[in-house]
Write a structure and sequence with these properties.
By secondary structure, this protein is an alpha/beta fold. It has twelve helices and nine strands. Strands 1, 2, 3, 4, 5, 6, 7, 8 and 9 form a nine-stranded mixed sheet that branches. The longest helix has 19 residues.
Length: about 280
């Protein structure tokens, strides 16, 4: 096998009981400071799965630990409520083997018992970015982590996920940095992941606040100051956005330390997506 699946979890043992048996090939579980005995339970029930226990919650950056520990050239991400369709990771590896510039393969993500297509996939399939002959699908500048496979070396070179945004919308900064490094990201429909959202998910409003907060923090880290001001003005017009701005303030010093403007070519592509009507963005 040339793909390791990295699963990150925190206090969701009931979900793991359901999803871990569905994973094939090498699997590494990164326990993100769980307090429900997840790590020892997994070691006992699923001895074939490697378990890495962290002493605290690192957010999305916990995936970096799994990627570093993997000894395969490609790594697939799963959450505790998602898994990969049979044969999909073999197809993903074949795409990476044929496309040396490919850093992220964004898969077709099917949601819930009915297997509805995640709306983000429709947007990625309709990406307005210029097609690239050396990529296996439409080029994109974003992805959903639990439906993505990455080239391990490219992921690590770009720094992986970071603890400034922590969680929710953590993919954007990584996608932009990979594009800045001339790596390709593509949406590929013949690679399929399943996501059955956990009933133990966080409060929806709190998640909306985090996503908005992280949009602002990512802009601070990578976008022109004019764009940062525009995002701030937009967020200030709603209760959710105002809460997001307040939540971002303690994290601003970390974002400013990591500030590094995108190359013009990547900024132009990012603006191309922003100019598209909603529902047609990649």
């Amino acid at each position: 096998m040339s793909v390791t699946t990295v699963v990150v979890t925190r206090n969701r043992w009931p979900d793991l009981e359901r999803t871990l048996p569905r994973h094939a090939g090498p699997v590494l579980l990164v326990d993100n400071g769980s307090e429900d005995g997840t790590a020892p339970r997994v070691r006992e029930r699923f001895p074939r799965i490697g378990v890495i226990g962290l002493d605290r919650n690192h957010g999305a950056a916990a995936r970096n630990v799994g990627v570093e520990a993997a000894d395969t050239p490609y790594v697939a991400f799963s959450d505790d409520d998602s898994w990969w369709a049979p044969g999909s990771l073999d197809r993903a590896a074949a795409h990476f083997d044929r496309s040396p510039r490919l850093a992220v393969l964004a898969a077709r993500l099917l949601v819930g018992e009915t297997g509805e297509l995640d709306p983000v996939c429709r947007e990625m399939a309709a990406s307005p970015l210029p097609r690239a002959v050396d990529l296996p699908g439409p080029p994109v500048l974003g992805f959903v982590a639990c439906g993505a496979v990455v080239r391990r070396s490219a992921f690590l070179d770009a720094g992986g996920f970071d603890e400034v945004v922590f969680f929710a919308g953590e993919e954007e900064r990584l996608a932009l940095d990979l594009a800045a490094g001339c790596w390709g990201l593509a949406y590929v429909e013949d690679v399929v992941a399943h996501h059955h959202p956990s009933p133990r998910r966080d409060d929806p409003q709190a998640r909306r606040v985090r996503i908005a907060r992280n949009r602002l923090l990512t802009a601070v880290m990578r976008r022109p100051w004019a764009e940062v001001r525009e995002v701030t003005r937009e967020l200030a017009g709603s209760r959710t956005g105002s809460a997001a701005i307040a939540d971002a303030v303690p994290r601003l010093p970390g974002a400013l330390r990591r500030r590094n403007r995108l190359p013009r070519r990547v900024e132009d592509r990012r603006r191309m997506l922003e100019d598209e009507p909603v529902g047609q963005r990649g």
